[in-house]
Amino acid sequence: MREKTPPYWRARRVVAALGSAPRAGGGRADPPLVGPPRRTPRPRRHFTAHLGFEADSPEQARELAVAYAEALSLLRPELALGAAAWSPADAWHRAERLFCGAVGPDGERCADVAGHPGFHHAAGPGGLGWGEGDG
After folding, report:
1. Rounded to an integer, what distance in angstroms lies between the CA atom of residue 122 and that of residue 134?
2. What's the CA gap between 20 and 32, in Å, rounded?
3. How far is residue 87's CA from residue 101's CA, in Å, rounded to a whole number?
4. Which of 10, 32, 62, 119 lies 20 to 30 Å from 103 when distance is taken between CA atoms?
5. Residue 115: partners with Cβ closer than 8 Å, 6 or more residues away
6. pTM of the model
7. Which helix (H) or strand (E) holds 97?
8. What residues are paired with 86 via a beta bridge?
9. What is residue 85's DSSP assignment?
10. From first to last of its 135 residues, what are the pLDDT tens digits of the chain?
């Protein structure tokens, strides 16, 4: 005949019989029967947020996209501003970069809009300028 006790009581008796339950009198318990997972945690991954908005022309859409990207980067500094791009809503495969992203002499990246004239500038009010200049 089967026992009529709940399954968790039976499991406790089995653990106690195997000797891994805490000992009476405050002694230390044996190590657990199940070890920690051997799999290393997954590395952090990058994700993309797509924002939809309306504009009258591609030029206006580009300006709005730059404004949205800069505003979001002020609110959340961990956003990768240099990776921002824009595209028509029905043609994501035609995405264009919003920011220049040219690498400077100290490893910083240009924070100006893509295709800007003149020097490249690092992010921030006192950002380093480099490049060919106005010529």
Report:
1. 17
2. 7
3. 18
4. 62
5. 100
6. 0.61
7. strand 96-97
8. 96
9. E
10. 466 666 655 555 655 555 555 555 555 667 778 877 788 888 888 888 889 999 999 999 999 999 999 999 889 988 888 889 999 999 989 999 999 988 888 888 888 889 888 888 887 777 788 887 654
